[in-house]
Predict the structure of Metal ABC transporter permease.
Amino acid sequence: MLQLEFMQNAFMASFIISILCPFIGLFLVLRRYSMIGDTLSHSSFAGVAIGLVIGLNPLITAFLFTSLCALIIEFLRDYYKKYAELVMSLVLTFSLGIAIILISSGKASANVNSYLFGSILTVTRSDIVLISIVGITCIAILMLLYNKLVYITFDEEGAKTSGIKVKAINYIFTLLVGATISMSIRIMGILVISSIMVVPVATAMQLKKSFKTTLIFSIIFGFIDIMLGLVFSYYINSAPGGTIALTSVFTLIMVIIYERFRG
């Protein structure tokens, strides 16, 4: 299996994704932003559709469009502070409308199924380079802003009082979410990207550890889920996105059972 070039590409891309997605996901879950991952993953569908229609790399157009949607969400949150889910619905509707119109036009130059469900066959070396550059950049920014993000996550008002530029950091963080999602499309697929950002975090939270320990376990569980999901996907010839999603849920169930018996 590892002698095949497409599996090597898939594993290399998945390694970056398995670190970045749970890292972002922990902050999303604790800030009650879980739905933003789902919204932006569907927004990336429109970005992919734009790339397929105009003939550009869909990962690049997905990154640009998803980043734009991320900025719109953060901007509109100031106008709908008590109705955050309304902002998600607006952006989701707008994005899906664009995607459906473009895909149904018949001008898309490739099969969109590989982007919806993920594919280990379509990851190219150029994709790995792009994923690596964006992924490493996102991880570096997260490490740089780590302490401020933790402060904002648990006490946003206190962070403002202490002089932290909360709005600017929120914009940066939302852009990181958009970038993470757009880079995960090839492996996870649009429909289940949000699962690998949330489920490993939910699994790690069952252990009831400190924030840093939970973050470490989130990344560990994310790595296990994605790698096992890829292996299962190869042997049973299934879409990696769905296989990884089921693997992550199964891991969560096993940890819950373990904690119950240990308790």
